[in-house]
């Protein structure tokens, strides 16, 4: 297999595939359209070969491969690389289907080492920090909105896509993800539930080092990447209660917040997860005045740290000013467009409602130059 660490190997591969040669990393063309910019939507056939089902996406984003590899190297400690290679050698036994096959297919199409592709999935699994809110409006309709914030934002903005995962002629679920990535950070099961993932703990207060996350993955062979669990739940469950149970009890690799909205009144929750199970489930309770729940990256029962307290405080302030009667797709988007909820790391904003699946909309957010 050709490995992208070798520039000559890159050239040989691209010539063999008759693909245009990418520019050097320093010159990789990162588009900067006006803010906001709608994402492109792709259809992925769940009945097709998992090694090939992402090919259209991969073809459209092939020029970003050198930048993706550079991002992996900037995030991942060198001492983790041998472990990734070891997992890659036994990927079919250590990573469940269809993710093992999809990761292998993506790596092969892009000419990447499978170990690097595993590391790419790990990066997204534990390093995205965000703001999510689930709210009930005056007509008892549940709404869900989220900002995804990420350090490598310019690259991620260019890789962000919307996907209709289809079974036969029907869209089974929708998701916002990143080209080359098998997991899901944001998704919707029409007429069932909506879901988003927020990192638990900020960059300065990471919960658990790399080795601990990876050790968990090895010790618990039934454990899951968080974002693989989200996609499996979207695919396998139909109702809010079933989804909450599955995402509360499945062993995962890293602590996280899973924010879920339903299709019926009162269905909304922030699940605070450790690796083994839920530590807390913070539900909507409109009868007691809790018509929305909002999560950034900190346990809701504790104060946010001083260096990032404004994001949570402003989010609550804007929701309280809005009021339940005024909640809709436009006003929630405006709340998430208020600084510092919207910031220079914000990659995209999604607004969705399981009971109104046609609302599902994602805009890539570009900061001023």
Oligomer: single chain
Task: Tally the beta strands.
Answer: 14
Write down the overall mean pLDDT.
Answer: 86
C-alpha-based Rg, rounded: 20 Å
Distinct helical segment count: 13
- Helicity range of the residues? 25-40%
Silhouette: globular
Low-confidence stretches: 1-28, 202-208
**Percent of residues in beta strands:** 15-25%
Can you put this structure into words, describing what you see?
With 369 residues, the protein is of the alpha+beta class. The protein is 34% helix and 23% strand. It has 13 helices and 14 strands. The chain has helices spanning 7-17, 55-60, 65-75, 81-89, 91-94, 99-110, 114-126, 153-159, 210-219, 226-236, 240-249, 309-322, 329-335; strands spanning 37-38, 41-45, 129-136, 142-149, 160-167, 170-178, 186-189, 193-199, 256-262, 268-273, 278-283, 292-295, 346-352, 361-364. Strands 2-5-6-7-8-9-10-11 form an 8-stranded mixed sheet. Strands 1-14-13-4-3-12 form a 6-stranded antiparallel sheet. A hairpin with a 3-residue loop joins β7 and β8 (193-199). α3 crosses α7 (114-126), α4 (81-89) packs across α7 (114-126) and α6 (99-110) crosses α7. The longest helix has 14 residues, at 309-322. It is globular, with a radius of gyration of 20 Å. Residues 1-28 and 202-208 have low confidence and may be disordered.
SSE topology sketch:
Blueprint: H1 7-17, E1 37-38, E2 41-45, H2 55-60, H3 65-75, H4 81-89, H5 91-94, H6 99-110, H7 114-126, E3 129-136, E4 142-149, H8 153-159, E5 160-167, E6 170-178, E7 186-189, E8 193-199, H9 210-219, H10 226-236, H11 240-249, E9 256-262, E10 268-273, E11 278-283, E12 292-295, H12 309-322, H13 329-335, E13 346-352, E14 361-364
Parallel strand pairs: 2-5
Antiparallel strand pairs: 1-14, 3-4, 3-12, 4-13, 5-6, 6-7, 7-8, 8-9, 9-10, 10-11, 13-14
Helix pairs in contact: 3-7, 4-7, 6-7
């Amino acid at each position: 297999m050709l490995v992208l660490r070798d520039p000559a190997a890159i050239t040989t591969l691209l010539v063999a595939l008759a693909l245009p040669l990418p520019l050097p990393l320093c010159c990789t063309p990162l588009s900067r359209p006006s803010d906001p910019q709608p994402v492109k939507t792709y259809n992925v056939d769940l009945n097709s070969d998992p090694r090939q089902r992402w090919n259209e996406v991969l073809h459209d984003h092939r020029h970003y491969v050198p930048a993706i590899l550079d991002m992996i190297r900037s995030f991942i400690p060198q001492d983790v690389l041998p472990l990734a290679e070891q997992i890659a050698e036994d990927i079919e036994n250590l990573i469940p289907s269809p993710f093992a096959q999809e990761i292998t297919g993506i790596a092969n199409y892009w000419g990447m080492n499978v170990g690097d592709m595993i590391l790419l999935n790990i990066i997204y699994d534990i390093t995205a920090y965000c703001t999510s809110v689930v709210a009930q409006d005056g007509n008892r309709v549940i709404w869900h909105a989220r900002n995804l914030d990420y350090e490598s934002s310019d690259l991620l903005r260019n890789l962000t896509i919307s996907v209709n995962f289809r079974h036969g002629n029907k869209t089974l679920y929708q998701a916002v993800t990143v080209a080359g990535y098998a997991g899901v950070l944001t998704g919707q099961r029409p007429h069932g539930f909506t879901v988003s993932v927020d990192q638990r703990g900020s960059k300065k207060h990471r919960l658990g080092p790399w080795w601990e996350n990876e050790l968990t993955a090895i010790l618990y062979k039934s454990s899951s990447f968080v974002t693989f669990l989200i996609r499996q739940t979207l695919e396998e469950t139909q109702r809010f209660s079933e989804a909450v149970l599955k995402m509360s009890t499945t062993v995962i690799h890293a602590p996280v917040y899973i924010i879920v909205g339903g299709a019926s009144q009162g269905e909304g929750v922030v699940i605070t997860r450790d690796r083994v199970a839920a530590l807390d489930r913070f539900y909507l309770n409109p009868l007691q005045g809790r018509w929305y729940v909002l999560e950034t990256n900190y346990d809701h029962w504790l104060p946010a740290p001083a260096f990032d307290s404004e994001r949570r405080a402003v989010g609550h302030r804007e929701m309280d000013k809005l009021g339940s009667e005024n909640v809709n797709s436009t006003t929630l988007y405006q709340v998430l467009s208020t600084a510092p909820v919207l910031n220079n790391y914000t990659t995209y904003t999604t607004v969705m409602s399981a009971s109104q699946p046609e609302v599902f909309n994602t805009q890539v957010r570009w900061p001023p130059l």
